[in-house]
Amino acid sequence: MVHTTCSRFHRAVELIGGRWSGPILQAVLAGRHRYADIRAAVPGLSDTMLAQRLRALEAEGVLQRRVIPSSPVRVEYHPTEKGTALLPVLGAVARWAEVWIEPETVPVADERFAKELAQ
Predict the structure, then answer these.
(1) What is the pTM of this model?
(2) DSSP 3-state assignment of 76?
(3) Which of 4, 31, 89, 109 lies 20 to 30 Å from 22 when distance is taken between CA atoms?
């Protein structure tokens, strides 16, 4: 039983702690669903890395990719039930970081969302 719990915990930490995953999830959970809006909310994130992380989060069932038929075609990313369930987890991490991590060591992708989570 302990091994299963450790394995699940490790996978969960890797999922939300993977490079850029946290800030991307914060952006999507804050209502930024279009690719360009997510990219703008996460400074320093390359297009290639954003595309890779979005695919990985989609494959994990955390985000759902929606194609909006228009001209040009729009693609949006929305949290699934599994992704929405991460909101309190990310909030807890943000509150912990506010207390224990020095501000200059943490790049904040979206200060408004970080403040909302910390409340």
Answers:
(1) 0.80
(2) strand
(3) 4
